[in-house]
Amino acid sequence: MPGKPAQKRVLANLRSKLVSAPCTPAERYATLRGLAADALELERSGLAGKEAEQVWWASVFAAECARAVAELAAMLPWLEIPPAEDLAVRARLDAPLTLQALARLDVTAVDPALREAIGVASSRAVERIEQLRLLGVRCRELADLDYEFLYDRSRHLLAIGFNVADHRLDASFYDLLASEARLASFIAIAQSKLPQEHWFSLGRQLTTSAGRPALLSWSGSMFEYLMPLLVMPTYDGTLLDETYKAAVERQIAYGRERGVPWGVSECGYYKTDAQLNYQYRAFGVPGLGFKRGLADDLVVAPYASAMALMVAPEAACANLKTLASEGRIGPFGFYEAVDYTPARVPPGKGATTIAPYMAHHQGMAFLATSYLLHDRPMQRRFVSAPVFRATELLLQERIPRSFAIFPHPAEVSHTSSRAPDVERDLRVFATPNTPSPEVHLLSNGNYHVAVTNSGGGYSRWRDLAVTRWHEDATRDSWGTFGYLRDVDNDTTWSVAHQPTLARGSRYEAIFAQGRAEFRRADYDIETHVEVAISPEDDIELRRVTLTNRGRTRRTIELTSYAEVVLAQPAADAAHPAFSNLFVQTELLPDQRAIVCTRRPRSGGERPPWMVHMMPWPGRWRGLVRDLARGVSRSRPFGGGSDRAPSGLAHQQRRRGPRSDRRDPAPSDPRARRDGTLSRGDRDRGDPRGGARVPREVQRSARRGARARAVVDAQPGRAAPARCHEPRDPAVRAAREQRAVRERGAACAE
Q1: Residue 715 burial class via C-beta count within 10 angstroms: exposed 0-12, middle 13-18, buried 19 and up
Q2: 655-695 confidence digits (pLDDT tens)
Q3: CB 255, CB 328: distance < 8 Å
Q4: DSSP string over 394-445
Q5: Which residue, 259, 324, 409, 678, could crosslink 329 as a Cys pair with Cβ 3.0–4.6 Å?
C-alpha cells in the first residue's frame, strides 16, 4: 500500500467520524471501534512510508481506542449483543447512565443473554463504586497531614523542612505569600490544622512592574507565582490576580530585554554531576525576586510559558511557537529548558538545549492547557469541596489603597554588565606570583585534585582529604610536591614553584582540559611536569620529565613529598597533630611504593588506603620516611623548612617492608630516586598515587600482606597513559567542568 495516499484517506475517515460527538453509549461504542480500525490502518500506512513518529502516534491512538472499547464493553456488556428483540429495553439501556443508576438498574428483559448482561453490568457498577469509595478514603487519609511539627507558633510560619537526624526544624521559613507554599498554607487553614494568623503572617512586600503592583517572591520564578493557580481559583481585581498578571508581563519584558524567548522558572540547566545528570535549581527574573544575582543566569523553561496560558494565553502561545521553531520540542513535547548563560554555553553556540523531559513540568503544562481549553476544571473541583469553599475569602484579598513599594535595586533592568566568562580550553601563566592563586580543578567524579599556578593545592577522594591543605592568605605551600637536588653541587629546587620558591630562568604553568602542566628551567635542567587523573580509576599521575641542556653530566635526585590525611578536612583542620596519630605507613621497596592508611576506630570500619608509587626506571635510591634524622612533629623538616629541607641531603632509606608505629612523622611519606643525565639526555618518571577501599585488603590477615594487596589492587599502576588519553574525552570534559562549576567558578577564573 503506498504511504501518502492511504494516509490521506484514513485521516479523512477519522475527521468525518469526529465531526459530531456521539451521544448514546451505542454510538460511542461504534465510533470508538471505527476509530481503532482507522488508527491501525494509519499505523500500517506509516510503516509503508517509514515514518517512525507517525507510526508511534498511530499505535498509541489505536491502543487508547481499544482500551475505551474494552471499558465500555465491560461496564455495558449488552453493547456486544445484537439487538434482536427487546427493542424497548435496549432503548432504555441506551440512555445516559451513571454508575449509581447502573448499580440500581431494574430492567426485565425477555432475551436471556440480555438479562444476564444487565445483571453483570449492575454487579460491576457496584464493584466500581466500591473501588472509587476506597480510593476516596485513601486520598482523604493522605491529605490528613500533621503540620504541627513544621509550624513555628512564635512566627506563625512553616519551616522549609525538618532535620530528622538532629530532631530540629530548619532555620529557614516559607514567609512570603508569593510562593508555591501558599497552596499548602491554604489547605492547612481550611482543614483547621493551622490558624488563620498564619495566612496573614506571610510577607506581602509589593513592588511595581510596568505600573502594576506585584508581590515579591524569593527568586522571581514563574513556578512560585503560578503553580498554586493550577488548582486554586482566582478572582479579578484581587492582590493575587494582579500579581499573576504583573509577573507574566515582567517575564515577557525581560525576555524582550535579553533578546530570547521568555519564561524563567526553576528547572534543569547545563551543568552535570559525576553521573552526567543535569543539575536543577531555581532561576528567576530580576525585579520580581529578593534573591540577588538573578541576572547572572539566563535559562528559559518552556513549561513556564505553558503555565502562562492561564494568564496571557495569546502571548504564551506565540512564545511556545517561537520555542518550537527553534527546535526546543521533541517527540514527547517541549524539552526541559534552554540555557543561554554565556559561562556555560559551549564556545560557538548561543544556547544549549537541556533535552530531557521532566514529568512534573509536563504535568503542569497539561493542567495549564486544560485550564484554558476546559474552563478551569481543577479550579471548579477545588471550590466544590465545602472546606475550601468556606475558606476562599482568603484568596479575595484586595490590593491595599495605600501601600509601601519595595525599592527594588537597579537590577530590575540589569542585564549583567560583567563581561561574559569565556570557557577557554587553555590557560597559560608565565609567573607563579599572581595577585591571587589561579586554580585548576581535575576530577573523575570520585578523585579530585586542585592545583594552583605555583604548584600548590590538594588531593581529595570523595569527601576525604588525601593530602593536607589549610586555607592561608599568605602561603600556598600545601599539596604534593617534588624536590630536585643536584647531587654534585647540592642545589635544590622544586618541580614547580612551591614549596622551595626557587626562581628559575623560565617558568610556565599551563592549565588545559583534563590536565595541568608546569615547565621550568634551572641550571641547564629543563623540568616538565604533567598532572592528570585517570578517568576510570582513582589514580593521580604526576609525570616528571627532566632534560639536560648543559655540557656536563648531571646527577639529579628527585624526592616526592606529601602530608597524608585520609580523613575529613574539617577534622584534620581542627587538630592536625591528633589526626597524624592515626596515620600508618608501610614501605614496600620491591614495589617502589609507600602505603598509608588510618587505624580503624571500630572492628567494622573499613579505612581507606593510599598508595604512593615512583616506578622510575634506573637506579633506585629507596623509600624514605623522614627527610632527616631526628624528625619530629615540631621539626617536620629535620631542622630545615619546607623551602629548604635539610633532610634532602641525607641518604637515609628503609630496606624492609615493615611498619613503624613509632614513626615520629607518619603523615609525611616520601619516595626518592636519582639518575645521571648526559648532554641532551631525557629521563621520565611517573610518580603516582591513589586512594580507595579495595576488597582484596580485607582478605589478608597480616598487615604487611594487606599493604601488598593495596598495591596489587591499584588498577592504574601499569597504564599511566590512560590518565592522559581517556577513552571518552567528552565524558572526561564533562567531569572536569562539573568539578569547576559546582564551586561556582568559571574556567577562566
Answers
A1: middle
A2: 444 444 333 333 344 455 566 666 666 666 666 666 555 43
A3: no
A4: GGGPBPPSS-PBP---GGGG----SPPPP--SEEEES-S--SS--EEEEESS
A5: 324
pTM above 0.70, yes or no: no
Q: Is residue 10 within 8 Å of residue 45, measured between CB atoms?
A: yes
Inter-residue contact 289 to 348 (CB < 8 Å): no
CA distance 514 to 442: 6
Give the bridge partners for 238, in sequence order: 398
CA angle 687, 452, 280 (to 5 degrees): 105
The cell numbers describing 625, all together, are: 620516611
For residue range 389-410, what is the model confidence (pLDDT) as tens digits?
A: 999 999 999 988 766 565 554 3
Nearest to 297 by CA among 308, 305, 286, 312: 286
Residue 503: Cβ within 10 Å count = 13
Pairing of strands 688-692, 609-613: antiparallel
Angstrom distances, CA of residue 528 to CA of 50, 172, 483, 518, 560: 58, 51, 13, 6, 15
Tens of pLDDT, residues 132-156: 999 999 998 998 888 988 999 999 9
Nearest to 65 by CA among 110, 28, 13, 116: 28
Distances (CA, A) of 239 to 215, 308, 428, 485, 730: 8, 18, 56, 76, 50
Q: What is the dihedral of CA 251, 254, 259, 264, to 10 degrees?
A: -50
Task: Spell out the SS3 assignment of 380-407.
Answer: HHHHHCHHHHCCHHHHHCECCCCCCECC
Q: 605-660, pLDDT tens digit by residue? A: 788 888 888 765 555 555 554 443 333 333 444 445 666 665 565 544 444 444 44
Q: Are 101 and 92 contacting, i.e. CB atoms less than 8 angstroms apart?
A: no
Q: Which three cell numbers stand for residue 361?
A: 513540568
HSE, side-chain direction, 13 A CA sphere, residue 72: 21
Contacting residues for 307 by C-beta, under 8 A, at least 6 apart: 222, 223, 226, 227, 229, 230, 265, 364, 365, 368
* Per-residue pLDDT at 50: 58
Q: What is the separation of C-alpha 323 from the centre of its chain, rounded to a whole number of angstroms?
A: 24
Task: List 339's β-bridge partners, or say none.
Answer: 299, 352
Measured in whole angstroms, how far is the alpha carbon of residue 251 from the centre of its chain?
25
- For helices 377-384 and 359-373, angle between their N-to-C axes, nearest 10 degrees: 90
Query: What's the rounded Cα separation, in Å, for the pair 222 and 220?
Result: 7
* Residue 733 phi, psi (nearest 5): -60, -40
CA atoms 308, 314, 317, 319: torsion sign: negative
Strand partners, 674: 557
C-alpha cell of residue 702: 597480616
Q: What is the DSSP track for 156-178?
A: TEEES-EETTTTEE-S-EE-BSS
The runs of H, that is alpha helices, within 191-238 are 197-201, 222-226
**Cβ distance 266 to 731 under 8 Å?**
no
Q: Is the dihedral of CA 352, 353, 355, 359 positive or negative?
A: positive
In angstroms, rounded to a whole number, what is the distance separating the alpha carbons of residues 264 and 616? 56
Which residue spans within 633-723 are E strands per DSSP? 670-677, 682-685, 688-692
Contact (CB, 8 A) for 288 and 206: no
CB 544 within 8 A of CB 671: no
Q: Which three cell numbers stand for residue 414?
A: 540589569
> Would the CA dihedral through 728, 731, 734, 739 be positive or negative?
negative
What 3-state DSSP class applies to 619?
coil
Task: Please report which confidence band the pLDDT of residue 190 belongs to, taking 50, 70 and 90 as the band edges.
Answer: very high
Residue 741 vs residue 166, higher pLDDT? 166
